[in-house]
Amino acid sequence: MPKTITSPVDKFSGTVILFDPLPLPAVLAYEESRARVAPHYCPDAWGMIVELPESKRAVAKDLSDLTDKEKKDRTKTLSALASHQEECKKCRSGLLGTAANIEHLNAILPCVMEWHLDGVPETPNSSTFPGSPREESTRLLDWLIREIGYIYTGEVLQENDPNA
Ligand SMILES: [Zn+2]
After folding, report:
1. What is the 164 CA–ligand 1 centroid distance (Å)?
2. Which residues constitute the domain of residue 47?
């Protein structure tokens, strides 16, 4: 059953109909985009990351709970990690900002069956999708990629579940 979702962004109000289930090519586009947006750490970098206090705790806690020693160690580890990543040819920092938005859009386009949003063409592509206003465009893309993520993992959101 295709899934209709309602935009939370006023500037681009309306609905979007997503494929549900997602077609395999859309799943591939989603996975590839996620891999490019997420940072990649080499084993050495992972070694530092697992030493971070927040990695050691079973349940992620507020960083303000850290002891002074933990805070100091954390700062040291983070700066070692940053210098490592500058040099390392195997580590790759993730994408942020507009570069991430473009990657998200590449994943979103094959997952959408129909667009019914103000300010978005009926059949948008990477050249016609609105990139501004910047903040609203980013919020729209973030929301879409999150919604697609729910279908990808099979998570059911109560608020969007017509059977709830
Ligand atoms: Zn590395």
Report:
1. 46
2. 43-87
